[in-house]
Amino acid sequence: MSIGRFAPSPTGPLHFGSLVAAVASYCDARQRGGQWLLRMEDVDTTRSIKGASDDILRTLTRYGFVWDGEVVYQSQRSVLYQQVLDQLRDKQMVYACTCSRKEIADSSILQGIEGAIYPGTCRAQAAQVNTPAAWRLKTRDAEIRFDDVIQGHQQHHLSTAVGDFVLKRADGVFSYQLAVVVDDALQGVTHVLRGADLLNSTTRQIHLQQLLGYATPVYAHIPLVINSDGQKLSKQTLAQALPADNIKATLIAALAFLQQPLPENMHLFSLNDIWQWAISHWQLPLNTQAKCAINGKMAT
Ligand code: GLU
Ligand code: ZN
């Protein structure tokens, strides 16, 4: 049984970029005859916006998505994440870190793929007691590789590209990396299709899967939708919420962005027929060189 998923963060309404990720994972899962799960990535409750989850579910329904089973909310799964963290602690694969942001900035000399690398100060010494501590994973001195269906071969030497990364923050919030690995494994996800902004996270996730004895899903990272200023569409760049009307045209625009073959008269199809066509004709990989900047306004 193949299982795909869509995992939006409820930090605002769905925008065209998130629709593209949802459409890709949906067509891929349905074409395999597999399940498609929905997971709200609200693990960082400090970033969640009230009402955003319900708004996302309403929008997905309006666009004709049908998900399998109950929606999973990460905010309700802290016990599971803590169990996995405890497991790693018992195996001495994690350590408590009480460094402040400033201490880290002052002491890191190496730059990794996502900024300064934590120099490992607390790895060698016991953390200060009575100070709230983050939990970091001891990264191994080894290469992590995988073949992405769209982006091709990827590899990182985790200790020099990323360093010992945080699994639980000092304020008690579990990290995206830990939560996504636990959830993908517990939900039996076999195929992950998501935005290319997460390509660099994947080697960290594979490393965690290996430490925990989890299977590694197939990964396909979709080219990012950028606005006319060349920025990724996101809540930060004020991407517009998906329109409530013009649903068919917006869905067709998402399929066109995904370089899918489309019949000329598709706008005359019913919503249901658009989905049927899209699912039966779904094909990967995509050309990552194609320049298909979508003006943030085009989809409205
Ligand atoms: N929650 C992430 C986002 O909205 C997606 C995470 C994932 O698909 O692994 O960008
Ligand atoms: Zn530290």
For the structure shown, list the relevant keywords.
10 helices, binds glutamic acid, alpha/beta, single chain, 12 strands, binds zinc ion, three-stranded antiparallel β-sheet
Query: How is the quaternary structure best described?
Result: single chain
The stretches of 5 or more residues where confidence is low (pLDDT under 50) are: 295-300
* Helical percentage: 25-40%
Sum up the overall morphology in one term.
Answer: elongated
- Give the radius of gyration: 20 Å
Could you give the order of the helices and strands? EHEHEHEHEEHEEEHEHEHEHH
SS-derived structural category: alpha/beta
Q: Could you report the average pLDDT, rounded to the nearest whole number?
A: 91
